Amino acid sequence: MRLIRLPLTALLVGLTVLSGCSTSSPDVIDRADAQRLSTVTDAVVLSVRPVVIDGSQSGAGGVTGAVVGGIAGASVGGRREAAAVGVLAAVAGAVAGNAVERLSTREQAVEILVQLARTGERRAIIQAQGQEQLQAGDAVLLIGSAGKIRVMKAPPVGASAP
User: Domain ranges in the chain?
Assistant: First the structure.
């Protein structure tokens, strides 16, 4: 039983690390976007609604689960049984690993419908829930960099820099 518990712990630790690799949070900036000029567009929030960003399945969870399951299963019984159990455990581990990866990478998010100040056009942006709570009527800035957009509250007009 100790042999099985250790690989399952390793699987959970590995998938937890993987789940932290990607986020759509407006409070987390990609390293590649640091020190780059971004476009800024003024807008007003029309509505905000909660949504869920589905988890990813990069395959890493399945591979990790298959390896851990195969190792755990191969340690059961004699030579013949170990091979059969190892294969079955690897398949079960792959399925479980995919499910754990998908669930651990899901994010609570918001869909923000905005109206651009200059043109009056409407746009929808989905991003993970950040520190700021946006509401209809809020003046916001749409910050674009490398094809990605994030929404943040606009500072008051005439506000001085810190």
Answer: 2-153
Alpha-carbon span 158 to 141, nearest angstrom? 15
Separation between Cα atoms, residue 151 and residue 12, nearest integer Å: 33
CA gap 27, 150 in Å, rounded: 9
Bridge partner list, 148: 145
For residues 70 and 89, the answer to whether their CB atoms sit within 8 Å is yes
Give residue-wise pLDDT tens across range 52-78.
887 666 666 667 766 776 676 666 666
Helix axes 2-19, 79-104, angle to 10 degrees: 30
C-alpha–C-alpha distance, residues 104 and 97, integer Å: 10
Q: Which tokens belong to 4?
A: 């099985």
Which one-letter amino acid corresponds to residue 62?
Answer: G
Task: Output the pTM of the full model.
Answer: 0.58
